[in-house]
Each structure stands twice: as C-alpha cells, then as structure tokens.
Amino acid sequence: xxxxxxxxxxxxxxxxxxxxxxxxxxxxxxxxxxxxxxxxxxxxxxxxxxxxxxxxxxxxxxxxxxxxxxxxxxxxxxxxxxxxxxxxxxxxxxxxxxxxxxxxxxxxxxxxxxxxxxxxxxxxxxxxxxxxxxxxxxxxxxxxxxxxxxxxxxxxxxxxxxxxxxxxxxxxxxxxxxxxxxxxxxxxxxxxxxxxxxxxxxxxxxxxxxxxxxxxxxxxxxxxxxxxxxxxxxxxxxxxxxxxxxxxxxxxxxxxxxxxxxxxxx
Length: 266
Description:
Elements: E1 7-16, E2 19-29, E3 34-38, H1 45-52, E4 60-65, H2 75-81, E5 82-85, H3 97-102, H4 106-109, H5 118-130, H6 146-160, E6 164-168, H7 176-189, E7 194-198, H8 202-208, E8 211-216, E9 226-231, H9 233-236, H10 240-246, E10 250-254, E11 261-265
Parallel strand pairs: 3-7, 3-8, 5-6, 6-7
Antiparallel strand pairs: 1-2, 1-4, 8-9, 10-11
Helix pairs in contact: 5-6
C-alpha cells in the first residue's frame, strides 16, 4: 500500500532578501516518522522548518504539508494540520501554564480561554503529564525558568494534536533527564504524526529518530545550504559525512548491551 507523505519538499530553495539560505533541498517525511535535522549553526535548519510551516515562501521548488501548500492554505486549516514551535517564543502576558497549554486547542474549535471543552482539558492534562509540567499548571509562565518554559511550550505543541509537528531545538536548555523524556514523548507522538526536530544532539537523534538529515552550509558564494545526507541514524551518525558536516572528528561506539550507536566529538 502506498503511503502519502505528510511533508514533501521538492527542489526547495529559500532565502531572505538577496541572501540564499537553502538550495535544491528535496526530502519527504511519512506519517509516523520522526526525522531529526542536523547541521552546524547557519546551515539552514530553521529556515527549512519555517518553509515547511508556511512562514517563508520558496524561491524555487515546492513544499506540501498533508497535500496543502502551507504558504497558501487558510490559517485555521493549516493550524489543524501542522504545529510549529520556534526556538524563541515570547509571551509577555501573565498566563498560567495550564492556560498556555490550552492555547494549543484553539485551532480546533475557535474558542478562547474559558470556552474549552472537556476533551480540550483532557488533551491538555495528557500533554502536561508527558512534558512533566502538571506541577506547574497554576504557575505563571513568565515566572518559570527557561527549561520549564520550554517544557510548557512543548506541552502546548503536543496538545494541538496535529498531523505534523515541526520543532526547532525543543530540548535546548533542558537537563539530560527531561531531554530524554521529551524525545521519548515525541517518539510516541510519531506513532500518529510526522515529527521533524532540529537538534544539535547527535546521540538523541541516533537513539530516537527513524532518519536523520544533515544540512551543510554553502561552499561557494551565491549558493545556499544543501542536503548532505539523509538516512537511518546508524548509517549517518558517526560517519565521515557527519564528521565533515560538523567540522570535528567523532569518536563512535555502541552502548553496551544495546544496539544504540553514540558519537562523541573530540
């Protein structure tokens, strides 16, 4: 049976003003797949997510999310299909964590705080439990630490329950225990959605991703970053391609008693 991809980028080229950022990037993500985007700073990972989310129109090529052009789709329709969590999220008003998480339900019924259904509250409680923020439910978002805020925003993203999740460094500022727990939650979510995660953690990518994609910056003026490698983590992480992409030698091995590969820069 043929599976229709949840995300398709075909010969995608993007940029800002006169500056090209991505050149000729082609990949697809299937429903139920967790893909990690890897690469050095400035390799175009965030730009690729923004293009997938419909926040940046392609210069060339196409993007499709669940069959829709995200740059042209109605905002409500798109919000039900895709959730994008950026690296930075400014929320100045003193909402509680519970209120922030419930905002993820807004695209599904058009209500606002105080108008949610029992199903919305059930979804919020489940998402907060997954992200370990139940104990923070009544605290104000702007009074939390950076890591606590990140977990609350991840709960909001999971609460939205979309077909596609686009997450830009979701475990940045998280301690190792919570970072592993978040990736484990994303692994579960990928059972019913396509999940695309930008991360700099090779070992989390190797442990949880179905596939990894490595973007490398342009090697000549006037060009953008390109897709250097795409495949299962065992075939990419720790290879010469990864070492070259990150500009550092990688010591690799297998976690004793498992089949998990790890990579340590040195």
